[in-house]
Design a protein that fits this description.
two-stranded antiparallel ribbon, three-stranded antiparallel sheet, 5 strands, elongated, 39% helix, alpha+beta, 184 residues
């Protein structure tokens, strides 16, 4: 079996591959097909890589305006990702990934309407808690948030490490617009 093909297939399936000594073959195979390795933290906090297209090569399958082939993020996913980014990325002068960890209830509270006085365990905005919790699960599955370790904390995921410098500059510019808990 071709070692490079094996590592590329493994990286595609697992999304994040431990950067073991024999993963050198993966790095060689990536350069042959215009892919890049992004250094991230693995599920156990170990050194790992995320395979992404090159910065100027991001193929799109389907037409962006066709709802059958392209599905955009829901408003609750965008709101939860913005809140998690703001809370986990406390210093915008640094890179956002890996950032810190914050309780999932704080992320949900940041999504509440200012002045709603949300109490953990209760509904936000007429039942939106379920939508925000679903968005947390989906963002974890997509890799924008790290997988649930069962400790009730939200961490930024490996897909955040793959954002371009241009994206980070825009996020820094709009950092103050990201959702955060309202301080009384």
């Amino acid at each position: 079996m071709n070692e490079g093909a094996y590592w590329l297939a493994r990286a595609r399936v697992e999304r994040v591959v431990a950067d073991e000594g024999d993963a050198v073959v993966l790095h060689q195979a990536l350069s042959d097909v215009e892919l890049r390795a992004v250094d991230v933290l693995g599920p156990e906090g170990n050194s790992a890589v995320l395979v992404r297209w090159g910065l100027d090569v991001e193929p799109v399958s389907g037409v962006l305006t066709d709802p059958d082939t392209h599905r955009g993020a829901t408003s609750s996913q965008l709101l939860v990702l913005g809140a998690a980014l703001r809370l986990c990325w406390s210093d915008p002068s640094r890179m956002p990934y890996p950032g810190g960890a914050v309780a999932d209830r704080e992320v949900i509270a940041a999504c509440a309407v200012p002045g709603s006085e949300w109490v953990p365990g209760e509904s936000v905005q007429g039942g939106q808690t379920a939508a925000y919790r679903r968005a947390l699960r989906e963002l974890r599955a997509f890799g924008y948030l790290a997988g649930d370790r069962g400790d009730g904390l939200v961490r930024l995921g490996p897909m955040v490490a793959a954002w371009s410098e241009r994206d980070i500059v825009e996020l820094r510019r709009g950092y103050g617009c990201l959702p955060c808990p309202v301080k009384e």
